[in-house]
Design a protein that fits this description.
Elements (H helix, E strand, L loop, with lengths): L16 E3 L2 H8 L8 E8 L5 H14 L5 E3 L10 E4 L8 E2 L7 H11 L10 E7 L7 E8 L5 H16 L43 E9 L11 H19 L7 E7 L15 E7 L9 H17 L7 H6 L6 H14 L7 E8 L15 E5 L8 E8 L2 E9 L5 H20 L3
Parallel strand pairs: 5-6, 9-11, 11-13
Antiparallel strand pairs: 1-4, 2-7, 2-12, 3-4, 6-7, 8-14, 9-10, 13-14
Helix pairs in contact: 2-4, 5-6, 5-9
Length: 434
Amino acid sequence: MTALEHRAGDPVRRPGRVPFPVVDEVARHCLQEQEPETVHIEVHLPGRLDPPRLRTAFTEALRLHPRVLMREAPRPWYGRRYEWELTSGPDVEVVSFPPTEADGLRRARERALDFVPPLSAAPPVRLEVVDEDDGSGGTVLFLTINHTALDGPACLRVLATAAESYGGRDNSPAAPPTRPPDTSRERPVTPSTWTPPARVAPGTPELSPGNGLLVTELPLPHRPKGAPYTVNDQLMVSTALTIAHWNRERGARPRPLRITMPVDDRPRDRTMPIGNGTRLVEVPFAADELVTDDLPGLLRRTAVRTRALKALPRPQLGHGAALLTAPWAPVGVRAALTRGLRRAAAPWTSTTLLSNIGRVPYPLDFGEGAGRAHAVWFSAPARMPRGLTVTTASTAGRLHLALRWSRTLLGQGDGARLRDLFEHHLRRTQEGTP
């Protein structure tokens, strides 16, 4: 029994309250209806799930990770903090089984991007179960997460617990991969960060607000034996080369790039802290680095930079965010200030975000009948001024890439072109050829 549950006959305790952490508060200050802050997770299973059994398993998983069961607490206008109100159970039905329809996957993806679970009802997560479009008899799970409250890795942990409860199979996390030892002793050469970085050049935007999404499956990249860089470094370089290539095609002059990279140091077992637990670092690239034919050199320099950035102790959003969220004034006042500063800082915002989940650590095995996940996609919000996010994960020996963009910047055809460029440059990082 968790601390939030109570036995029949025990006195009912008042819900606990937890002040918003820094990341949650900054996100809450900057909410926009036009571009909902959702994280989308898409899990493909070979078989079918029993609705009552899945609802029971997912509810049990929520109770085993009680930090998910929260809603935004009401507050007076002069309140100096946002607070999460922890609950003993869901306020709403979390799991749904929409009726089968044509283009069911596309419509489910659109819902995951356009309709954010409200903060006013616990938990701020929804799970849709949709049939595969290809007639294979498979099932797709769509988890939609309000990113003000939770991130993708935390909710994937909850889903792994639900899978274990549903199927009775062991869904313990695999050991994390090891990074090659640093034997070069090379010091990171970091381009200046004082210059505003390049923006993603506009394509053919759509009239409707919100985000667009494209998902694709690629071969898992390999690297030469003994290479000093990781697959994450290959993905980072591929992302930088893709955007530089895209911008050149649109006549933009070469500019330095900065790519935001989430770093997650949490354990993946059931002790994993649930919430927004990643810290953000920015990987810079000089303009001339992205037109070189020396890809091995670029990969090596990127590996040195990312290694140094990951090792650097730093608050999740930097030191400035902690000052902004200090309770020196009512939240309404501080929210207006935060939004104003965010607009003023827009030219210095990083070019894009690359979130590499890496190898999905859990089998996500729902047992006999439903089976084990063979594809998992994530996508992160892509509001302006970045306007584009790249998210990758690997499952069953394949790389699952999601490109997500603001419709005020790009259209569906632009997403397809960016996908092709990414695939081309990822292949280059493996071959080491121009």
